[in-house]
Amino acid sequence: MSYPRCVVSFPGTNYAPLTLEKNENLSEHLTVQNSPVLFGCRTGVCGTCLVVVEGDIPPPSKEEKEVLEILAPGDIRARLACQLNLTNDIAIALL
Predict the structure, then answer these.
(1) Beta-strand pair 78-80/90-94
(2) Whole-angstrom Cα distance, residue 4 to residue 58?
(3) Per-residue pLDDT for 85 more than 70?
């Protein structure tokens, strides 16, 4: 059985795009070997994985919004990579 897939790309870096199953959480698949994104707590608290996302993704949770208001006020493209579940192809850049 084939599952729907999404592509995660990292423009402006030497990292190759990754193809992951739809609805997968990025923190479970991104590593220092395959992406420029670093992770700390992986629970949405520390902000280490703050990125800019281009593409259609679900809105942030209330808890993630609170962190984003502190770390990237007013930037609607800012997200915590550890809180992202893939729904479509996206491009990620470090913030």
Answers:
(1) unpaired
(2) 17
(3) yes
Asked if residue 2 has pLDDT above 80, the reply is no
Tokens representing 72? 């990237």
At residue 3, the pLDDT reads 80
Q: Sign of torsion, CA 49 42 29 56?
A: negative
Domain of residue 19 covers 5-94
Model's pTM, two decimal places? Answer: 0.92
Residue 55 φ/ψ region, left for φ over 0, alpha for ψ in the -120 to 50 degree band, beta for the rest: left
* Range list of β-strands (E), the chain: 5-9, 18-21, 50-54, 78-80, 90-94
User: What is the CATH classification number for the domain harbouring 28?
Assistant: 3.10.20.30
Cβ(67)–Cβ(34) below 8 Å: no
Check residue 25 and give its pLDDT: 94
Q: Count up the domains in the chain and report the number.
A: 1
How much is the average pLDDT of 29-54? Answer: 96
